Queue: 2 jobs
Job 1
Amino acid sequence: MRISEVKSTTREQRIASHTHIKGLGLRDDGRAHAQADGFVGQDSAREACGILVDLIKSKKMAGRALLLTGAPGTGKTAIALAISQELGPKVPFCPMVGSEVYSSEVKKTEVLMENFRRAIGLRIKETKEVYEGEVTELTPEEIENPLGGYGKTLAHVIIGLKTVKGTKQLKLDPSIFESIQKERVTVGDVIYVEANTGAVKRVGRSDAYATEFDLEAEEYVPLPKGEVHKKKEVVQDVSLHDLDIANARPQGGQDIMSMMGQLMKPKKTEITDKLRKEINKVVNKYIDQGIAELVPGVLFIDEVHLLDIECFTYLNKALESPISPIVIFATNRGMCQIRGTEDIIAPHGIPIDLLDRILIIRTLPYTQEDIKAIVQIRAKIEGLTLTDDVLNDMAVTGEKTSLRYVIQLLTPASILARTHGREQILLEDIKEVDELFYDAKASALTLTKYHSSYVP
Ligand SMILES: Nc1ncnc2c1ncn2[C@@H]1O[C@H](COP(=O)(O)OP(=O)(O)OP(=O)(O)O)[C@@H](O)[C@H]1O
Ligand SMILES: [Mg+2]
């Protein structure tokens, strides 16, 4: 038997430009602080999202959808990420961009379906029979290879486990030794071995060893109480997609397999509709029995106008499902053609029937004061210093062009300042980069002026 942890397949977030956003910055009464958690201004949008977060936490929002609209650079993506921060790490948050559905390998609806399932969490509480304790000895015992030949093979492993109450010596199968090695268990670690499956889990380092010289970040845990052999409540947070993967490729995810396996025979397959249906069935059974709890999370679809009519039809249906996450869309488009149709113009490029079931939050353009405050936050994060006249100038430029444009000027301006042997960014640096680069509006203007000299 092979054992390994179910790795959560949560995706890395593309948030380098949003690292300063730590939450929605709301007071306890739900009103927005003028500036908090890295957020400045945009008060009503933030307050509306605060209500949404409460609804999600009290599980009253499943299957609903929200649309963030507003001009480019008004903080739509930032607000969505702030919502995910407010929800905390236990609530799944799956970000994607509309264009991700276009792959030559996978169907569009398949991509959507997968992300829907990434956004639905399941908290499983199981009482397991385990052997738990601090490892006092770890001795693999070898014998002559029974099939002849020269090598020796592993017969079994002797492992000593200690708790406050006593110690126990276990003789384990070689296959379990593999998972002990995978978890990098050494003498002095606190581990538990599941009695039924042999799955090994390293809890941490025993705090008796806390004084040893250690450069790595270690988690020290106390010596377990009670007997070595006992029943233990184990809580796991996984997404439905994690379950899909674990069951499609049974060599991964023994922990979940131990429970899923009791009800269905997993085979090595791809993730299919049939497999998902079966998993849903098992999940529903576990929810009914009170072993598992559904945690609907958030699916965030940025640049939603990039989806086409086929995807929208699918979304309409998916939102009706009893197990559906909250979906947050964002777009900066006004009236535009729905992709995949010949001539249907709709607000935000979203079909009216879908739009009809969505709550809409608008983000407004920033004032110069807001822009100043945001630029200052970004400068601090990037370790840059600016003079006051730089800030004022950027606020004026930002109002004319966009917040994103001025934020993007920061890094080149700092490079320029450094080549001049300065640490501080002066007005002349900003002026110079502003001349070197075009913002979107200026570029569009140039194009209309000189359009004859470009290739049509
Ligand atoms: N109110 C705010 N407070 C602090 N930072 C902000 C705020 N609004 C936007 N920002 C920052 O400004 C930059 C641009 O904002 P963002 O990417 O969220 O805009 P957007 O509305 O998603 O634009 P687009 O429509 O082009 O996708 C980001 O770095 C974001 O973190
Ligand atoms: Mg955006």
Job 2
Amino acid sequence: MTPRPVIIDTDPGIDDAMAIAVALASPELDVLALTTVHGNHEVDVTTANALRILDLLERADVPVVAGAGGPIGRPSTPPATFVHGDDALGDVGYPPSTRSAVRDVDAATFIVDTVRARPGEVTLVPIGPLTNLALALEIEPRLAQLVDRVVVMGGAARVPGNITPTAEANIWSDPEAAEVVFGAGWPITMIGLDVTHQVTATTAWIDALTGAGTPAARIVVETAPVYLRFHRDTDGLEGIHCHDAAAVAWMLRPDLFTTEALPVVVSTGDGTDGATVVDGAPRGRPLVDVAVGVDADAVLALLDERLRRAV
Ligand SMILES: [Ca+2]
């Protein structure tokens, strides 16, 4: 089996850390790089977190490339410190990395260069706002024909949003970029709240990882309390949604998900700003493989098994 080359575009982020750990523990995937973006915090912080996560996982061989500091068509959204902590990584106090991000290239250019060098091979896995992908498409419009696939964590097709009543956080953080990405006509899968809200790691699931003895499990256990407190306080949930890791799980086991090919339009209207409109109307738009169902228990078992592996 040849591992599938992937670039994870990320704004770490507690659930990003889990997704990155799962990807690096999976022999089916060859993680070429982490590209970073604004979102859960400012891009300098998310870049520092990407480096810290790789240090903790003892995977300093994976390059980190810093990307966009704000959305393409509007001011930045404030950091989601109420979800992920002041440092966006659970305020555990992990030391800063001694490593730096790649200095001579930005994320969008790195994505373009990497995909051009391996036409038809690379899958992009954006698990933050879609700014870097929109910028990459601007640099190289043929990117849509050159990727293997794009697997987006974001959006909400038939369920409410999580940052507004209609909008999911990643899309809401850069709706104009999301509109570009969902309209680009590339093979694309949307892993949205329709499925990620079912992939819920309970406190018992997290506690059971305590004795696993791997760095990946340790990061999940150590960073979870801040995220658990957010859910306990806001919706009474005793657990955390594994949003970003669900996108990686789709890469590993697409058979655990149900998708429907539907056009996705991103609203920028009053009251529905950042909403993904998935009503089946053709609108002359390319189709997106929208995840609408998931075997959540099987996905959680897969995540658990990978977090117990050495990366
Ligand atoms: Ca994220």
